[in-house]
Hints:
By secondary structure, the protein is an alpha+beta fold. Helices cover 37% and strands 24% of the residues. It has helices at residues 10-18, 21-26, 35-46, 73-76, 96-110, 125-133; strands at 2-4, 50-56, 60-69, 78-87, 113-118. The chain is globular and about 40 Å long.
Amino acid sequence: MFRIAERADVPAILALLADDEISRSRGFVSEDVDATIWAAFEQIDADPNNELIVGDNGEIIATCQLTVIPGLSRGGTKRMTIEAVRVRADRRGGGLGRAMMAYAMTRAREQGAGLIQLTTDKRRTEARRFYESLGFTASHEGMKLTLG
């Protein structure tokens, strides 16, 4: 059910990312596939430390991006960052997100990561409860700076 995304999946992935009130309010998500989006996909696809994942049951119903980051801290432990997690609205609550996160955790172990990290918008209280139910803890305060 979960696999690495292909170029043909990009429009469906963008639709999942755009189907989110918080993302729309930021103005950073578009369903239009332009040269910048294609270039980003090609970079992700070519990078062995990045995987764009889709849940596919004949149509794209979920997505996330997995990035393995080597580091010197924690004794050289690799960490995986899970980003842009989305499950199609009509599929939420049925275990698909839990299955996708289990897939991500398996990929992290296979790639030698000793830590998984993610961020979620503070307004996403349901997402936070979901991640906590998987064992994630809010151990750090995340910060972002938009460059523009």
